Amino acid sequence: MAPTTHLSYLQALLVAGLAHSLRGSLRAQAPGPQPLELKEVFALFQLQYNRSYSNPAEHARRLDIFARNLAQAQQLQEEDLGTAKFGVTPFSDLTEEEFRQVYGQQKAPGRAPNVSRKAGPKEWGRPVPATCDWRKMANVIKPVRNQKNCKCCWAMAVAGNIEALWGIKYSQSVEVSVQELLDCGRCGDGCGGGFVWDAFITVLNNSGLASEKDYPFQGNVKAHKCQAKKHTNVAWIQDFIMLQDDEQIIAGYLATQGPITVTINMKLLQHYQKGVIRAKSNDCDPHRVNHSVLLVGFGKGKSVARMPAETPQGGAPAHPSRSIPYWILKNSWGSNWGEEGYFRLHRGSNTCGITKYPLTARVDKQTKKQPVSCPP
């Protein structure tokens, strides 16, 4: 058994039964001494994710945050209407505000510049299939990236979109430069945050993108240090479009044209481990989107029969097992998070605002275009 798997297994054993009791105790008392089991779980968390703290006071503060997050994860577990599992993640020692500051957008996005919602059934001309997973086709989906402390989810989602569409259309494996999108963008704010249309505009203005190998990701931005002209471009786009805010239309376009960038509310992802998230709108507001990812597929799975909280053990289940449709999304937090870097959202209920900004490039070989300007 691999060390990380062993640690996760021990952690799961210790967490079982602990989170529920923590919820009650944290409601009733101020931060203070924590149970031995919690300290053991926290020690395993530190070992698994290589965490250390500057002094005992900071360690105690992070332990208290960890305890509260574990209780929050247990509450999400009880309230989720899908099959999601919530618990210890790489972000379990961060407050909700810290998590949002490091991994979310700085500001709420406005309307994408000069982009109206397009694409409908006529564009693909055949029925939407039951399942779709572009990860299964060669040269389409590249390995999961890790943005670390750089707020560049928007750039990584666009890079993944272009790579996938290029692979589908030309059967060529390309891995494009995220760093070029950060260094050379005139609309985004590099590691300070941006939106997917900022990245698409940069690609159009630069007449393409260099390769990741030639222009590698550094996770920072140096002012006036755009190196695009020093490298040969390996992929281009013709333009970009925004799809209609309809999940059936999005599914049809995804299945026939390729992966799409979407921007969602990431609140529940801090505690997400695996499964299909189906949240109530008050738990994951669909209007407050703040994290861009790549939509790579969809499918259906079996939900788990759940017992209502007030029903005694052995009573009738509140929700019998049934088929649950889901989206498959590629994140940019490394392969150690979620389902090997991916996660799933319920399909058909606009979970976490997935229909708000579905954008995608349309790829083509290099052509001379007029410069594109970002709105004031």
Automatic annotation (TrEMBL):
<feature type="domain" description="Peptidase C1A papain C-terminal">
    <location>
        <begin position="128"/>
        <end position="362"/>
    </location>
</feature>
<keyword id="KW-0788">Thiol protease</keyword>
<keyword id="KW-0378">Hydrolase</keyword>
<keyword id="KW-0645">Protease</keyword>
<keyword id="KW-0325">Glycoprotein</keyword>
<dbReference type="GO" id="GO:0008234">
    <property type="term" value="F:cysteine-type peptidase activity"/>
</dbReference>
<keyword id="KW-0865">Zymogen</keyword>
<dbReference type="InterPro" id="IPR038765">
    <property type="entry name" value="Papain-like_cys_pep_sf"/>
</dbReference>
<dbReference type="InterPro" id="IPR013128">
    <property type="entry name" value="Peptidase_C1A"/>
</dbReference>
<dbReference type="InterPro" id="IPR000668">
    <property type="entry name" value="Peptidase_C1A_C"/>
</dbReference>
<keyword id="KW-0256">Endoplasmic reticulum</keyword>
<comment type="function">
    <text>May have a specific function in the mechanism or regulation of T-cell cytolytic activity.</text>
</comment>
<dbReference type="Pfam" id="PF00112">
    <property type="entry name" value="Peptidase_C1"/>
</dbReference>
<dbReference type="GO" id="GO:0005783">
    <property type="term" value="C:endoplasmic reticulum"/>
</dbReference>
<keyword id="KW-1015">Disulfide bond</keyword>
<dbReference type="GO" id="GO:0006508">
    <property type="term" value="P:proteolysis"/>
</dbReference>
<dbReference type="Pfam" id="PF08246">
    <property type="entry name" value="Inhibitor_I29"/>
</dbReference>
<keyword id="KW-0732">Signal</keyword>
<feature type="signal peptide">
    <location>
        <begin position="1"/>
        <end position="21"/>
    </location>
</feature>
<comment type="similarity">
    <text>Belongs to the peptidase C1 family.</text>
</comment>
<dbReference type="InterPro" id="IPR039417">
    <property type="entry name" value="Peptidase_C1A_papain-like"/>
</dbReference>
<dbReference type="InterPro" id="IPR013201">
    <property type="entry name" value="Prot_inhib_I29"/>
</dbReference>
<protein>
    <recommendedName>
        <fullName>Cathepsin W</fullName>
    </recommendedName>
</protein>
<dbReference type="InterPro" id="IPR025661">
    <property type="entry name" value="Pept_asp_AS"/>
</dbReference>
<feature type="domain" description="Cathepsin propeptide inhibitor">
    <location>
        <begin position="42"/>
        <end position="99"/>
    </location>
</feature>
<dbReference type="InterPro" id="IPR025660">
    <property type="entry name" value="Pept_his_AS"/>
</dbReference>
